[in-house]
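Working notes for the structural subgroup meeting. M.R. asked for a predicted model of this chain before we commit to crystallization trials. I am recording the input and output together here so anyone reviewing the notebook later can reproduce the run.

Input as submitted:
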Amino acid sequence: MPNPKEGLYNEFMEEKIFEYKMKNLIAQKTVLSNMIAVLTGGVMWLIFLDAPKYKYIPAVIGAYLVCIFVTSLMNTITELNGYLYKSKK
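Returned structure, recorded in token form:
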């Protein structure tokens, strides 16, 4: 015979796991947003810097990293929305 306390415990643990997933995804979204802002500012600073032509190498690398972080941010937001707006059947 199943123990009723065990069912409540499993339900409680599922809620806690869901809560930790949400907190983790929100924190990841915040970090990625901040990284994009910092990298974009750095790339723009490098482009307008009055320096030799080799400044474009770090600018291209920075632009590539911005693209990677934007893609990761979009995936994180999609996953977060999937959890938040999941239809209960």
